[in-house]
Automatic annotation (TrEMBL):
Listed CDD domains: ParAB_family
Annotated InterPro entries: AAA_dom (IPR025669), DNA_Partitioning_ATPase (IPR050678), P-loop_NTPase (IPR027417)
Pfam families per UniProt: AAA_31
Keyword list, A-Z: Hydrolase
Top EC category: hydrolase
SUPFAM superfamilies reported in the protein's UniProt record: P-loop containing nucleoside triphosphate hydrolases
Lineage top rank: taxon: Bacteria
UniProt key word Hydrolase: yes
Source organism: Stieleria marina
EC assignment: 3.6.-.-
Domain annotation AAA: ranges: 8-174
Name this polypeptide is given: Soj-like protein
Molecular-function GO term, any one: hydrolase activity
Classification via PANTHER family: P-LOOP CONTAINING NUCLEOSIDE TRIPHOSPHATE HYDROLASE (PTHR13696), PARA FAMILY PROTEIN CT_582 (PTHR13696:SF52)
Amino acid sequence: METNTVGRILCVVNQKGGVGKTTTAVNLSAALALSGQRALLLDMDPQCNATTSLGCEPTVGHALISNSNLNENIVDTDIEHLSLLPGSRTFHDVDKMASPGDEESQQIRTHLDEVIDEYDFVLIDCPPSVGALTQTALTASTEVLMPIQCEYFAMEGLTQLIQTIKKVIVATDGRLTFGGILLTMYDPTLELTREVDEEVRDFFGDIVFDSVVPRDVSLSEAPSHGQSVFQYAPRSRGAYAYTQLCMEVLQRD
């Protein structure tokens, strides 16, 4: 498969936790790499779950706010074509990244610009918030990918997040676009799931992916083994779902 000529930076974001944000960042990046795309997963969540999900350790200091070359801090994973920029739980770095000034924000964007030409896709796993760190990640990105859990409060709080995204779109002169909304923890046997599906698609229209991610124990178990779902359970429903999502993302180029 041919690689893209212009790198795409996907910011995986939702202000709520437990919606499949990190699961999506990890497994979509893995799926893209397995399809032959050069992919970089960038962990900006202080919980560092994306880092440990791929069997790597958080760093003492986050490379995005250091003066070192970003390439010196990027590590290879067990998946060919997939690289990782590990996250950091160091309080000083978390605080600095969560409340960036203009200098730190520009430094983060400059670091990303240094490496974007080396990858077809950069996926950013953001913290579950609409704070300054998430806004900085959005500013540096070209697309937003928003996982939404199929539950009663799925739409709650999205207005604030969407307003934040719209502000960044205006501030970046349209560099940032809505890449897509992904329904997660999908159970077609539940009436609630079908209701949320209909509501989200009626409200957001074509930006909602056709692909949905089902409830699948493999997706929950894989991180504890330091593996993507493709390594842990390649024939699982979760692996199939993220393969389908990968195909849609590639088609939306």
